[in-house]
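Not sure how to ask, but would you mind making up any protein sequence you like and the C-alpha coordinates describing how it folds?
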Amino acid sequence: MKVDILAFGAHPDDVELAASGTILKEIKNGKKVAVVDLTQGELGSRGTAETRKEESKVSNKILGISSRENLNMPDGFFEISQENLLKVVRMVRKYQPEIVLCNSFTDRHPDHGRASELVSQACFLSGLIKIETELDNEKQKAHRPKIVLHYIQDYYLKPDFVVDVSEEMETKFEAIRAYKTQFFNPDDKNDSGPKTPISGKDFFDFLKARGQEFGRPINSSYAEAFKIERLVGIKSVFDLV
Protein backbone atom coordinates (compact mmCIF):
# COMPACT_ATOMS: atom_id res chain seq x y z
CA MET A 1 0.00 0.00 0.00
CA LYS A 2 3.00 2.32 0.06
CA VAL A 3 2.59 5.59 -1.82
CA ASP A 4 4.91 8.51 -2.45
CA ILE A 5 2.40 11.22 -1.48
CA LEU A 6 -0.52 11.00 0.93
CA ALA A 7 -2.89 13.97 0.68
CA PHE A 8 -5.36 14.75 3.48
CA GLY A 9 -8.40 17.00 3.22
CA ALA A 10 -10.91 18.04 5.85
CA HIS A 11 -13.64 17.61 3.23
CA PRO A 12 -13.98 15.84 -0.12
CA ASP A 13 -12.84 18.43 -2.72
CA ASP A 14 -10.30 20.24 -0.47
CA VAL A 15 -7.44 18.37 -2.11
CA GLU A 16 -8.82 18.97 -5.61
CA LEU A 17 -9.21 22.70 -5.03
CA ALA A 18 -5.76 23.41 -3.63
CA ALA A 19 -3.34 20.63 -4.58
CA SER A 20 -4.67 18.54 -7.48
CA GLY A 21 -2.39 20.22 -10.02
CA THR A 22 0.63 19.17 -8.00
CA ILE A 23 -0.80 15.67 -7.61
CA LEU A 24 -1.40 15.37 -11.35
CA LYS A 25 2.15 16.53 -12.07
CA GLU A 26 3.71 13.98 -9.72
CA ILE A 27 1.55 11.14 -11.01
CA LYS A 28 2.78 11.99 -14.51
CA ASN A 29 6.29 11.75 -13.05
CA GLY A 30 5.58 8.18 -11.96
CA LYS A 31 4.70 8.82 -8.31
CA LYS A 32 1.88 7.08 -6.45
CA VAL A 33 -0.64 9.24 -4.61
CA ALA A 34 -3.45 8.40 -2.19
CA VAL A 35 -6.06 10.73 -0.66
CA VAL A 36 -7.71 10.57 2.76
CA ASP A 37 -10.71 12.77 3.52
CA LEU A 38 -11.39 13.35 7.21
CA THR A 39 -15.14 13.99 6.86
CA GLN A 40 -17.90 13.35 4.33
CA GLY A 41 -18.67 17.05 4.03
CA GLU A 42 -22.18 16.30 5.21
CA LEU A 43 -22.81 19.82 6.54
CA GLY A 44 -22.28 21.44 3.16
CA SER A 45 -25.22 23.62 2.09
CA ARG A 46 -25.39 21.79 -1.23
CA GLY A 47 -25.44 18.08 -1.92
CA THR A 48 -25.22 15.24 0.59
CA ALA A 49 -22.64 12.85 1.96
CA GLU A 50 -23.83 10.34 -0.63
CA THR A 51 -23.48 12.68 -3.59
CA ARG A 52 -20.05 13.83 -2.39
CA LYS A 53 -18.96 10.18 -2.23
CA GLU A 54 -20.06 9.53 -5.81
CA GLU A 55 -18.50 12.77 -7.02
CA SER A 56 -15.22 11.80 -5.36
CA LYS A 57 -15.18 8.57 -7.37
CA VAL A 58 -15.40 10.57 -10.59
CA SER A 59 -12.61 12.88 -9.46
CA ASN A 60 -10.42 9.93 -8.47
CA LYS A 61 -10.52 8.62 -12.04
CA ILE A 62 -9.69 12.02 -13.47
CA LEU A 63 -6.70 12.44 -11.16
CA GLY A 64 -5.48 8.85 -11.46
CA ILE A 65 -4.82 8.41 -7.75
CA SER A 66 -4.07 4.97 -6.32
CA SER A 67 -6.56 5.00 -3.45
CA ARG A 68 -8.99 7.20 -1.54
CA GLU A 69 -10.48 6.70 1.93
CA ASN A 70 -12.79 8.61 4.24
CA LEU A 71 -12.33 8.59 8.03
CA ASN A 72 -15.95 9.64 8.66
CA MET A 73 -15.15 12.23 11.30
CA PRO A 74 -18.08 14.58 12.00
CA ASP A 75 -18.05 17.51 9.60
CA GLY A 76 -17.72 20.78 11.49
CA PHE A 77 -17.29 19.11 14.87
CA PHE A 78 -14.25 16.83 14.72
CA GLU A 79 -11.65 17.50 17.40
CA ILE A 80 -7.93 17.01 17.84
CA SER A 81 -8.52 14.04 20.13
CA GLN A 82 -6.58 10.87 20.81
CA GLU A 83 -9.17 8.91 18.85
CA ASN A 84 -8.86 11.09 15.76
CA LEU A 85 -5.09 11.36 15.99
CA LEU A 86 -4.86 7.57 15.97
CA LYS A 87 -7.18 7.38 12.96
CA VAL A 88 -4.75 9.54 11.01
CA VAL A 89 -1.72 7.68 12.39
CA ARG A 90 -3.17 4.44 11.02
CA MET A 91 -3.47 5.99 7.56
CA VAL A 92 0.09 7.34 7.63
CA ARG A 93 1.41 3.94 8.71
CA LYS A 94 -0.74 2.14 6.16
CA TYR A 95 0.46 4.18 3.18
CA GLN A 96 3.98 5.07 4.44
CA PRO A 97 4.30 8.24 2.35
CA GLU A 98 7.46 10.23 1.86
CA ILE A 99 5.41 13.43 1.63
CA VAL A 100 2.13 14.40 3.29
CA LEU A 101 -0.08 17.19 1.95
CA CYS A 102 -2.74 18.69 4.19
CA ASN A 103 -4.96 21.70 4.81
CA SER A 104 -3.84 25.28 5.31
CA PHE A 105 -2.69 26.53 8.73
CA THR A 106 -5.66 28.91 8.86
CA ASP A 107 -8.57 29.44 6.51
CA ARG A 108 -12.15 30.63 6.07
CA HIS A 109 -13.57 27.26 7.11
CA PRO A 110 -12.50 26.44 10.69
CA ASP A 111 -12.27 22.74 9.82
CA HIS A 112 -9.29 23.51 7.59
CA GLY A 113 -7.02 24.92 10.30
CA ARG A 114 -8.07 22.19 12.71
CA ALA A 115 -7.38 19.49 10.11
CA SER A 116 -3.99 21.06 9.46
CA GLU A 117 -3.01 20.72 13.12
CA LEU A 118 -4.54 17.26 13.47
CA VAL A 119 -2.62 15.82 10.53
CA SER A 120 0.61 17.55 11.52
CA GLN A 121 0.50 16.13 15.03
CA ALA A 122 -0.44 12.67 13.78
CA CYS A 123 2.50 12.60 11.35
CA PHE A 124 4.87 13.16 14.27
CA LEU A 125 3.16 10.61 16.51
CA SER A 126 3.18 8.07 13.69
CA GLY A 127 6.96 7.86 14.00
CA LEU A 128 6.93 6.92 17.70
CA ILE A 129 7.47 3.19 18.07
CA LYS A 130 5.84 3.05 21.50
CA ILE A 131 2.51 4.09 20.01
CA GLU A 132 1.05 0.79 18.88
CA THR A 133 -1.66 0.60 16.23
CA GLU A 134 -3.36 -2.16 14.30
CA LEU A 135 -5.18 -2.18 10.98
CA ASP A 136 -7.21 -5.17 9.85
CA ASN A 137 -5.89 -7.10 12.88
CA GLU A 138 -2.28 -6.57 11.84
CA LYS A 139 0.24 -4.60 13.89
CA GLN A 140 1.54 -1.56 12.05
CA LYS A 141 5.11 -0.33 11.82
CA ALA A 142 6.01 3.18 12.92
CA HIS A 143 6.50 5.60 10.03
CA ARG A 144 7.11 9.34 9.87
CA PRO A 145 6.88 11.23 6.56
CA LYS A 146 9.95 13.17 5.52
CA ILE A 147 7.96 16.39 5.24
CA VAL A 148 4.47 17.78 5.77
CA LEU A 149 3.31 20.42 3.29
CA HIS A 150 0.26 22.62 3.82
CA TYR A 151 -1.57 23.69 0.67
CA ILE A 152 -2.89 27.25 0.62
CA GLN A 153 -6.65 27.46 0.23
CA ASP A 154 -9.17 30.32 0.40
CA TYR A 155 -7.27 32.79 2.59
CA TYR A 156 -4.10 34.18 1.08
CA LEU A 157 -0.92 33.20 2.90
CA LYS A 158 2.54 34.10 1.66
CA PRO A 159 3.85 30.84 0.13
CA ASP A 160 7.08 29.20 1.13
CA PHE A 161 7.24 27.72 -2.37
CA VAL A 162 5.00 27.26 -5.41
CA VAL A 163 4.66 24.48 -7.98
CA ASP A 164 4.20 25.22 -11.69
CA VAL A 165 0.94 23.50 -12.67
CA SER A 166 0.30 25.29 -15.95
CA GLU A 167 0.03 22.05 -17.92
CA GLU A 168 -2.26 20.51 -15.29
CA MET A 169 -4.79 23.32 -14.86
CA GLU A 170 -7.34 22.07 -17.38
CA THR A 171 -7.45 18.62 -15.78
CA LYS A 172 -7.47 20.16 -12.30
CA PHE A 173 -10.61 22.13 -13.18
CA GLU A 174 -12.15 18.97 -14.59
CA ALA A 175 -11.54 17.20 -11.26
CA ILE A 176 -13.09 20.12 -9.35
CA ARG A 177 -16.14 20.16 -11.63
CA ALA A 178 -16.68 16.49 -10.79
CA TYR A 179 -18.29 17.84 -7.61
CA LYS A 180 -21.37 18.96 -9.51
CA THR A 181 -23.47 19.62 -6.43
CA GLN A 182 -20.88 21.96 -4.96
CA PHE A 183 -19.64 24.14 -7.80
CA PHE A 184 -20.90 26.05 -10.82
CA ASN A 185 -22.18 23.69 -13.48
CA PRO A 186 -22.82 25.42 -16.83
CA ASP A 187 -24.87 22.42 -18.00
CA ASP A 188 -27.38 22.88 -15.18
CA LYS A 189 -29.61 25.69 -16.40
CA ASN A 190 -32.11 25.18 -13.58
CA ASP A 191 -29.81 25.18 -10.57
CA SER A 192 -32.15 25.52 -7.61
CA GLY A 193 -29.61 24.84 -4.88
CA PRO A 194 -28.75 27.49 -2.28
CA LYS A 195 -26.18 30.06 -3.31
CA THR A 196 -22.88 29.71 -1.50
CA PRO A 197 -19.45 31.41 -1.76
CA ILE A 198 -18.27 28.55 -3.99
CA SER A 199 -21.35 27.79 -6.11
CA GLY A 200 -21.10 30.60 -8.67
CA LYS A 201 -19.01 31.05 -11.80
CA ASP A 202 -17.10 33.79 -9.99
CA PHE A 203 -15.49 31.15 -7.77
CA PHE A 204 -13.82 29.56 -10.79
CA ASP A 205 -12.68 33.03 -11.82
CA PHE A 206 -11.12 33.34 -8.35
CA LEU A 207 -9.39 29.95 -8.63
CA LYS A 208 -7.95 30.89 -12.01
CA ALA A 209 -6.77 34.27 -10.75
CA ARG A 210 -5.23 32.71 -7.63
CA GLY A 211 -3.31 30.24 -9.80
CA GLN A 212 -2.08 33.10 -11.97
CA GLU A 213 -1.09 35.10 -8.89
CA PHE A 214 1.05 32.25 -7.58
CA GLY A 215 2.47 31.53 -11.03
CA ARG A 216 3.52 35.08 -11.91
CA PRO A 217 6.62 35.27 -9.65
CA ILE A 218 8.06 32.14 -11.27
CA ASN A 219 7.17 33.15 -14.82
CA SER A 220 4.52 30.47 -15.26
CA SER A 221 0.88 30.73 -16.18
CA TYR A 222 -0.41 28.92 -13.09
CA ALA A 223 0.97 27.58 -9.83
CA GLU A 224 -0.16 26.03 -6.55
CA ALA A 225 1.29 27.26 -3.29
CA PHE A 226 2.40 25.59 -0.09
CA LYS A 227 3.59 26.37 3.42
CA ILE A 228 6.15 24.25 5.26
CA GLU A 229 6.63 23.55 8.96
CA ARG A 230 10.40 23.34 9.14
CA LEU A 231 13.58 24.43 7.41
CA VAL A 232 14.15 22.60 4.14
CA GLY A 233 17.67 21.65 3.11
CA ILE A 234 19.05 21.19 -0.40
CA LYS A 235 22.20 19.48 -1.66
CA SER A 236 22.98 22.06 -4.31
CA VAL A 237 21.96 25.63 -5.00
CA PHE A 238 21.10 24.40 -8.51
CA ASP A 239 18.17 22.52 -6.97
CA LEU A 240 16.58 25.95 -6.79
CA VAL A 241 16.94 26.72 -10.50
In short: Helices lie at 14-28, 49-63, 82-95, 110-125, 169-177, 201-215.
